Amino acid sequence: PSKNIFNLKSTTLMNFNFNVTDITGKIILQKNNVILKNNHYQIDMSAFTSGIYFLNITSNGGKLSKKLVLN
């Protein structure tokens, strides 16, 4: 859980796309061609209300989904 910022860390992802959806599946945030700086990227969710969201990452044909809990 987080209050505003979610941190992505990876030593294998170099360039990726992601979106964040709410529990209804509506995309509320989307970024393409994200490049990690020092194996790190921050997602600022301070503009959104508390709740459960889903982070969907795609890179090189692979997909990963994670649940985000915003307090």
The end-to-end distance, rounded to whole angstroms, is 7 Å
Task: Return the structural class.
Answer: mainly beta
Radius of gyration: 12 Å
User: In percent, how helical is the residue content?
Assistant: under 10%
Q: What summary fits the major beta sheet?
A: 4 strands, antiparallel
Q: Uncertain spans, ≥5 residues at pLDDT below 50?
A: none
The outline comes out as globular
State the helix count. 0
> What are the secondary-structure elements, in order, as H or E?
EEEEEE
The side-by-side strand order for the widest beta sheet comes to: 3-2-5-6
User: What is the residue-averaged pLDDT?
Assistant: 94
For the secondary structure, the number of strands is 6
Protein traits:
single chain; 71 residues; mainly beta; 4-stranded antiparallel sheet; two-stranded antiparallel ribbon; 0% helix; 62% strand
Summarize the model shown.
The chain has strands at about 5-10, 15-20, 25-35, 40-45, 50-60, 60-70. It is mostly beta strands. The protein has a four-stranded antiparallel beta sheet, with no helix packed on it. A two-stranded antiparallel sheet has the order 1-4.
